């Protein structure tokens, strides 16, 4: 089975270069912790599938490690793939695919990651362990449950939610349902439910702060797909409101004029159930 990218995704991620430049990466301590949870930290040549790899921001971190991982970066968006291929990352094979069409032999990978991209529908049980890491700021792409640290971050968050296009993203906090709905009713029915992944899933987070100029923060905010599609007067109004919030007199700044952008890297992990049938799950 294959799926088609939505028009919002095709247009919103068309400027893959800007996305790659301005979207956040992941704190080293979070990367180390999740690889340890997936039992591939220190494992030389382990095969890792990066599902929904985008421009390769997570694959790039994996490729730079001493383990010399064999990385299969799966991405459906053509412009994103081109951006990733241009990096010529060591040990990374870039392939077209998505959660419905993963060009990897069943149960051949040591681990699978879906960094900032988990399709809220179905997954295939072909992996040893699965991890879902996200690194988001409290100002853009943050769930409603995350409280912004500053007034200007709250303004950017309000703008972002006002342009919500109902496409499933980490901020909607629906990704856990992919795993939770394996059970038809209660934990006592787990055998009948025929689950693919162990429950409960593990979850942890690392908070971070980046000091960035208002201009860089705006470009990062604009790289969000639902903001990237704005044009003309809509884009002008959003930019004006965002820069006004960051330019307020009570905004904390460092000596270089940078603002503290607060973020959180969330990572969750689980493992495939031994003997689980090879079929669509969720």
Secondary-structure map:
Layout: H1 7-12, H2 16-22, H3 28-37, E1 47-51, H4 57-63, E2 70-74, H5 78-85, E3 92-95, E4 111-113, E5 123-124, E6 129-137, H6 151-162, H7 177-180, H8 190-193, E7 202-212, H9 214-222, H10 225-228, H11 232-246, E8 259-271, E9 280-281
Parallel strand pairs: 1-2, 1-4, 2-3, 4-6
Antiparallel strand pairs: 5-9, 6-8, 7-8
Helix pairs in contact: 2-9, 6-11
Question: What descriptors fit this protein?
Answer:
single chain; 282 residues; alpha/beta; seven-stranded mixed β-sheet; two-stranded antiparallel ribbon; 11 helices; 19% strand; disordered C terminus
Following the backbone from N to C, one meets helices and strands in this order, namely HHHEHEHEEEEHHHEHHHEE
Number of helices: 11
Note the beta-strand portion: 15-25%
Based on CA atoms alone, the radius of gyration comes out at 19 Å
Shape descriptor reads globular
**Unreliable sequence segments:** 117-128, 277-282
The pLDDT mean sits at 84
Number of DSSP E strands: 9
Overall structural class, as computed from helix and strand content, comes to: alpha/beta
Q: Helical content, roughly?
A: 25-40%
Measured between the Cα atoms of the first and last residue, the distance is 15 Å
Oligomer: single chain
Strand order of the largest sheet: 3-2-1-4-6-8-7
